[in-house]
Amino acid sequence: MMQRTLAILFCVLLSLSPGAQAKGFVFTDSTGKKLTLADYKGKWVLINFWATWCPPCLKEIPDLVSLYESRKDVMVIGIAMDYQNPKTVLKFVDSLSISYPIVLGDRKIAAQIGPVSMLPTTYLFDPAGQPAAYKVGLISRESIEEFMRENSPNSQSHRPGETSQRKRK
User: What is the pLDDT of residue 23?
Assistant: First the structure.
């Protein structure tokens, strides 16, 4: 029942905001590496806007780390917003063992993706690079994976040993 409730909550994302326009985003992560949507063709791309002072943001980070580390078909990019000192953000990243790329964001960075009215805000792009989902508020690994299962045309990109529960049409 809980899984179904989470899936329903995430499926609200299907009514993706028309603001999701990440066709040509270019970010530079905290290590200096350039990240573009085209770099991850064939993967789901999850872009999560967060802040160090945001309790729901911090609550979802372990799920995002787990998703990133266990699925080769998913790229997670965290965009830290509303910070005063970049060093504080990077210390936070280390203390939370965040392994996915972190971008030090601002309104200009966010504008490449879409509206960010509250934190956390998450955008999900399908393996073809098309906007697939948008959510303001807390997300979970379970809800993300349920959404991807229900919206993936194939299951070939799972890691060996993973089982696929995608619906056949």
Answer: 61
